[in-house]
Amino acid sequence: LRVNQDEPMEDYPLKVEGGKEDDSSSGTRRFGMGQTTKDQMRTNVINEIISTERDYIKHLKDICEGYIKQCRKRADMFTEDQLKTIFGNIEDIYRCQKKFVKALEKKFNKDHPHLSEVGSCFLEYQTEFQIYSEYCNNHPNACMELSRLTKVNKYVYFFEACRLLQKMIDISLDGFLLTPVQKICKYPLQLAELLKYTNPQHRDFKDVEAALNAMKNVARLINERKRRLENIDKIAQWQSSIEDWEGEDVLVRSSELIYSGELTKISHPQAKSQQRMFFLFDHQL
């Protein structure tokens, strides 16, 4: 985060004459010029959240209009499946973020930014943010497909032409496509920063606190889904490496390998022992 490099010069709320706290009902505290207050810090964070959100919307718009639209015009170069692999569900993310930024701006208090109550916006959109899960899980495939295409000059020139036409900064397409992954990880950091400078008496305090937990849960859920998909992929690869596999696929009943190792199998009545490799999955051995 670029904001709040300086800690406030004094604790908040400030003590005024007579040792009583200044807790004016308006929530606005007046101090001499040059003093940094908790309100000023909160203003900085709110401004940062709003401005990064506007930048991000422009970024998504540039990808959807600068790249995807142009790619769709070139059916000779891209199939719809390829575009789905490269861009995932970024158009869904763009639609969701447009609504989210409008909700944020409605809650933004231009005259007194520190009084803005933005926590409820994050709470309202927490389930919609789960669409990032699909995008994050697809991202490694997008990188592989792009890496394959950019070995061919005509694709390199095409992507560069898209970037120049859209007047985007000089970063390769895979760099632009990493932004949504970074964005969903950044929300908990911004909200933690906002909570730090929100007075417990502030009307937004409870919502910001709940929003921070909600966005941590979204990030956790995305990581959990990603981990499960990786596990499923490992099991499928493991099974395909075994010759003459018999019976149903492991993935019909299980999605995680818990443990593997050698065991001694003892057959009665001769009590013959043999070393065997055993694999314990979440629903079968």
What does this structure look like?
With 285 residues, the protein is mainly alpha-helical. The chain has 2 domains: 40-240, Up-down Bundle (Dbl Homology Domain, Chain A); 254-281, no CATH class. The protein has 8 helices and 2 strands; from the N terminus they run H-H-H-H-H-H-H-H-E-E. The chain has helices spanning 38-72, 80-87, 90-107, 119-125, 132-149, 153-165, 173-196, 205-240; strands at residues 257-267, 272-281. The relative contact order is 0.10.
Q: Mind sketching the topology for me?
A:
Blueprint: H1 38-72, H2 80-87, H3 90-107, H4 119-125, H5 132-149, H6 153-165, H7 173-196, H8 205-240, E1 257-267, E2 272-281
Antiparallel strand pairs: 1-2
Assign the structural class, choosing from mainly alpha, mainly beta, alpha/beta, alpha+beta, or little secondary structure: mainly alpha
CATH architecture of the largest domain: Up-down Bundle
Strand order of the largest sheet: 1-2
β-strand percent reads: 5-15%
Proportion of helical residues: 55-70%
CATH first level of the largest domain: Mainly Alpha
Task: Supply database-style keywords.
single chain, mainly alpha, Dbl Homology Domain, Chain A, 2 domains, two-stranded antiparallel sheet, DH_dom
Summarize the structure.
Residues 12-23 have a biased composition (Basic and acidic residues). The protein is mostly helical.
